[in-house]
Design goal:
binds zinc ion, 28% strand, Trna Endonuclease, Chain: A, domain 1, 5 helices
Length: 201
C-alpha cells in the first residue's frame, strides 16, 4: 500500500499531501499509475486510516517490496512528518526527505526505501521502518545493499521485527537501536537520530 503514485505527466503524487480522495481526484482527474509496474492505481482512505494508493490486483514489478500493513503506513507517515519538520527547522535547503524512494542498483532487483533523506538531490540516508518478521542476516544484507551504493541506513524496528537478536545486531552495527511502539505512538530516540543526520551535513 504505497503513499506515492505517478500522475499522467509522470510526476510523483503523494497521498499525504491531500486531505481526502475528493481533493486528490479533483486535482488529478486523469488518474494514477504505479511508478514501478506502470499499472493503474487508485486512492482510498479507509475509515480513520491512512490515505494511500493501491493496485487493482498486484504490483508486477520485480523491485523489492512487500505487502504493507496500516501500521507500516502509519510508521512511514509519522517518520516522514517528523523528519520534514526537523529538516525545515534546520533551514538546510540541501536536505530533503522523500517517501518511497527507489534505489534501482541496490540488491538484485533494486529496493524501495521507505524514506530517503537526500542531500543535494542525491540519496544520502535510507530510513527503513521494519515491522514484519526479519532475520539478522536479512537486516545485514539490506544494510549492505544500501551501503554499497554509498547510502547509509537507519532502521526503525517494531512489532515482529523487534526481537532480541535484531536489537543486538543494530546496537552492534550502529551503536543505537530505534524502536517503534504503536501502543504509545512513540518512536524512541528520534531526536538523537535527527540531530545526528543534521550534524553530518
Ligand atoms: Zn506496481
Amino acid at each position: 500500500m504505497p503513499l506515492k503514485a505517478l500522475d499522467s505527466s509522470q510526476n510523483a503524487v503523494y497521498s499525504l499531501a491531500y486531505a481526502n480522495t475528493i481533493e486528490l481526484k479533483e486535482r488529478h482527474p486523469e488518474g494514477f499509475t504505479c511508478p514501478y509496474c506502470q499499472q493503474k492505481m487508485f486512492a482510498r482512505k479507509p475509515n480513520k486510516k491512512i490515505f494511500h494508493f493501491y493496485h487493482a490486483s498486484q504490483c508486477t514489478s520485480k523491485i523489492e517490496h512487500h505487502p504493507e500493513s496500516m501500521e507500516h503506513l502509519l510508521g512511514k507517515q509519522t517518520l516522514y512528518d517528523e523528519l520534514n519538520k526537523q529538516i525545515q527547522n534546520s533551514k538546510n535547503s540541501e536536505l530533503k526527505v522523500e517517501i518511497e524512494y527507489p534505489v534501482k542498483e541496490a540488491g538484485e532487483h533494486g529496493r524501495i526505501a521507505d524514506l530517503m533523506i537526500t542531500h543535494k538531490e542525491q540519496p544520502h540516508i535510507a530510513i527503513e521502518c521494519q515491522l514484519a518478521n526479519i532475520t539478522v542476516e536479512l537486516l545485514k544484507k539490506r544494510t549492505q545493499d544500501y551501503e554499497k551504493q554509498g547510502i547509509g541506513v537507519i532502521w526503525f524496528i517494531g512489532k515482529k521485527a523487534d526481537t532480541h537478536e535484531n536489537r543486538q545486531f543494530l546496537y552492534e552495527e550502529f551503536g543505537d537501536c530505534h524502536i517503534i511502539k504503536f501502543e504509545e505512538r512513540i518512536i524512541n530516540n528520534n531526536e538523537t537520530i535527527f540531530e545526528a543526520i543534521f550534524k553530518d551535513n
